[in-house]
Write a structure and sequence with these properties.
Helix content: 25-40%
Radius of gyration: 23 Å
Low-confidence stretches: 6-24
Bound molecules: 6-diazenyl-5-OXO-L-norleucine
Number of helices: 18
Structural class: alpha+beta
Distance between the termini: 44 Å
Largest sheet: 7 strands, antiparallel
Strand content: 15-25%
Shape: globular
Length: about 575
């Protein structure tokens, strides 16, 4: 395997052959995304991207556009867009200053370590994923309020109005949304205490149907007129707590009143001559992304080829080690001492790769966490924004599973999250993404559950280069990692980097999950010969990203795996 700068000059002939002779590329031209002169939003839904771009046409900045997009997604993409969930926003201002906003949900005051276990300390199936008890205290509305207070330039009401209009006047369903709603209608209506009639269609939803969300429009009007109080107090809060009481949930008025989104210091690190700006805890995303990049930085990945056996093997071996660290060391830093700077030291991550064998997979059983120097269907959604002044915003927001805990707050018309499943509900017990954890991520009242969301911004030579992120649970970190390397090491444009097939390893289970046709047969055989187990897995992630081109224009990368779309000017 070739290392950059010829550190450790070990080049087994087998690898040299494979790495220098990747499969002859097909002659199809590389896909190119929407090109815009100065401003762009790429999100999971064309209507939400348009809302964000229109806000910037009116003179709003990237944060204004992000706020309007978040609220629009709560309407047009109810499986993941939300006001009943939470998320993270990473900001890079045009002057190079950076910020990170944590509006992650938190455990209710009445929650506790064993709340999903029976008397024998066994996990009660589905309790942390479906129904009222699965919900964390929502953070999205306070997050948007705080973002607006610090960075907003247009009036708050202007940012809410497009979402209110979409909810009140109705909007057309896409094919994918119609089938998502049909699956919800068939399988999950039973989670509700009172049937949400607006979601019911006797003969099933189809593309082009108009859906109206009158109660949600009313809730958004309360938020427009009263700000934070429109959600965390008064009618909305009372409806939410009444919903909890009908369904044995535990979120109280006090929980809602006490919820506070927090500005945090972003995770910042170098990779070659690039700067990586990402989300700190309670997300594991930023730290794990930096660890992954540092683990492979000294290898000459550009010469090894995209999705070839040596490249995949190297990246997977880093993933295996870093996800073991994630399980042991990462949690909400307000409650647990995460060794953040130690985990992000280059020497530490290089040392983690000492046991890397370029010819053989290291079994996950042989890998445990390092000792840093100090002692569903699933839905989330990401969107990326750049405004004409060059401010950049990267937002990932979620209900966790598709339609969250499947419960609509009666009278208020929005879905609640099932984010409590992101805690380690019992040491070593896998969550819905197969992730394991322990003490660092155990449930405590008011603690935030560990996330993998990785909203990220990349700089080159002090200038904005890329805004990137994705949904996908545990695969978020590795999808962002691959997309960044596709551009930085494999020379792809933004759309090509987003379209490229993905793979994922998370330490446990000891398997590489692979998108269909991601690897050619030679690559698969080589990986299996090294001892890797491969498993075909539908699609991985929905990356929405923007690349600043050398001439200053913007290229959008909207993921073809969903309805995702770019809008810009
Ligand atoms: O915060 C997290 O890591 C998860 N709740 C994200 C869930 C997710 O991405 C589901 N979507 N595909």
């Amino acid at each position: 395997m070739i290392r950059k700068h010829f550190v450790h000059f070990i080049v087994p002939v087998f690898f040299l052959v494979l790495s220098c002779a990747p499969e002859v590329p097909t002659e199809e031209p590389a896909p190119i995304g929407l090109i815009a002169d100065s401003a762009m939003v790429v999100s999971a839904h064309p209507l939400a991207s348009k809302v964000g771009a229109d806000i910037m046409k009116k003179g709003g900045n990237a944060v204004d556009a992000a706020i309007a997009t978040q609220f629009a997604l709560a309407v047009v993409y109810p499986a993941a867009g939300n006001i009943g969930g939470g998320g993270f926003m990473v900001i890079r201002n045009a002057d190079g200053s950076t910020d990170a906003l944590d509006y992650r949900e938190k455990a209710p005051l009445a929650g506790g370590r064993d709340m999903y276990l029976d008397e024998d300390k066994n996990v009660i199936e589905d309790l942390s994923t479906k129904g009222h008890l699965a919900a964390g205290v929502p953070g999205s509305v306070d997050g948007m309020v705080k973002a607006h207070e610090k960075y907003g330039s247009l009036a708050w009401s202007e940012l809410l109005q497009p979402a209110i209009d979409l909810a009140a006047d109705g909007f057309e369903l896409t094919e994918k949304e119609a089938s998502g709603l049909n699956r919800y209608q068939e399988n999950h209506m039973d989670a509700n205490t009172i049937t949400p009639e607006f979601l019911v269609k006797e003969d099933g939803w189809k593309a082009g149907d108009i859906i109206y969300m009158k109660e949600l429009a009313h809730t958004l009007e309360l938020i427009r007129d009263q700000g934070r109080e429109g959600f965390y107090a008064g009618e909305t809060a009372e409806n939410l707590v009444a919903e909890m009481e009908r369904g044995n949930g535990i979120i109280s008025l006090e929980d809602l009143a006490r919820y506070k989104a927090k500005f945090r210091t972003p995770v910042i690190s170098e990779y070659d001559n690039y700067k990586i700006i990402s989300m700190p805890p309670p997300s594991s995303g930023g730290i794990a992304l930096v660890q992954l990049l540092q683990s492979v930085e000294d290898f000459a990945i550009d010469g090894m080829g995209h999705n070839t056996a040596p490249t995949v093997h190297l990246m997977v071996e880093a993933e295996r080690r870093i996800y073991a660290d994630r399980a042991a060391h990462l949690g909400d830093m307000d409650f647990y001492p995460v060794p953040l700077s130690e985990l992000m030291q280059k020497e530490y991550n290089v040392a983690r790769m000492d046991s890397f064998d370029p010819e053989e997979a290291t079994p996950s059983l042989a890998v445990s966490e390092g000792k840093p120097a100090v002692a569903e269907s699933m839905e989330t959604t990401h969107f990326s924004v750049i405004d004409p002044a060059g401010n950049a915003v990267s937002v990932t927001t979620t209900l966790n599973g598709g339609f969250g805990n499947k419960v609509v707050v009666a009278g208020s018309g929005f879905f609640l999250n099932n984010e409590m499943d992101d805690f380690s509900i019992k040491p070593g017990y896998p969550n819905m993404f197969g992730l394991v954890g322990g003490e660092a991520n155990a449930i405590e009242p008011e603690k935030r559950m560990l996330s993998s969301m990785t909203p990220t911004i990349v700089e080159k030579d002090g200038k904005l280069l890329m805004v990137v992120g994705t949904p996908g649970g545990s695969t978020i970190i590795t999808s962002v990692y691959q997309t960044i390397l596709n551009v930085l090491e494999h020379g792809m444009g933004m759309q090509a980097a987003v379209d490229a097939k993905r793979f994922h390893h998370q330490w446990k289970p000891d398997t590489i999950f692979v998108e269909t046709n991601a690897f050619d047969s030679t690559t698969m055989q080589s990986l299996e010969a090294m001892g890797h187990k491969l498993m075909d897995r539908g699609s991985i992630g929905r990356v929405d990203a923007i690349l600043v081109l050398p001439d200053g224009r913007l290229e959008g990368g909207a993921d073809p795996r969903g309805d995702d779309a770019a809008a810009g000017f």
